[in-house]
Amino acid sequence: MSEKWHKSSYSDGGGGDCVEVAEGPVTGVRDTRNRELGHLDVSVSEWTALLNAVRGR
Length: 57
Prior knowledge:
Layout: E1 6-7, E2 19-22, E3 26-31, E4 40-43, H1 44-55
Antiparallel strand pairs: 1-2, 2-3, 3-4
Organism: Nocardiopsis tropica
Region (Disordered): 1-22
Protein name: DUF397 domain-containing protein
């Protein structure tokens, strides 16, 4: 997994409740408020399916 974590540009609005992702052969997903608790790893196909579902494709 890549260790280059980033937040969505949609996450910049006030509340601070965000997730970060590190995309690569395996995508890591973590809570910005609780980074020390670790992250979830998802496969490329699972990540793509999630993004497509959120985008309504």
